[in-house]
Amino acid sequence: MNVIELFVPALGVVGLLVAGIIFRNIMKQSGGSGDVAAIALQIHQGAMLFMRRELFILGGFTVLVGGLLILKDPYEALAFFLGALCSSMAGVIGMFTATKANVRTALAASEHGAARALTTAFFGGSIMGLTVASMGLLGVGGLFLFFGGSKTDIHIIHGFAMGGSLVAIFFRVGGGIFTKAADVGADLVGKVEAGIPEDDPRNPGVIADNVGDNVGDVAGMGSDLFESYCNAMIASMAIAATLALGQVEALAETAHALIFLPLALAATGLLCSFSGIGIVWLSASKDPAKALRTGTMSAAFIFILAAIAVVTLLGISMNVWLCVVAGSVGGIAIGLSTEFYTGGSPMRSIAKAGLTGVATVMIRGVAVGLQSVAIPLAVVALVLLGASSMAGLYGVGIAAVGMLATIGITMSIDAYGPIADNAGGIAQMAGLGQEVREITDSLDEVGNTTAAIGKGFAIGAASLAALAIIAAYVNVVRSYHVDFALLLSDPKVLTGVFLGGLCPFLVAAITMDSVGDAAQEMIEEIRRQFREIPGLLDGNAKPDSNRCIDIATNAALKRMVLPASIAILAPVAIGFGLGPETLGGALVGALLSGVLLALMMANSGGAWDNAKKFVEQGNCGGKNSEAHRACVVGDTVGDPFKDTSGPSMNILINVMAIVSLVIAPLL
Question: Residues 488-505, buried b or exposed e (16+ Cβ, 10 A)?
Answer without folding.
Answer: eebeebbbbbebbbebbe
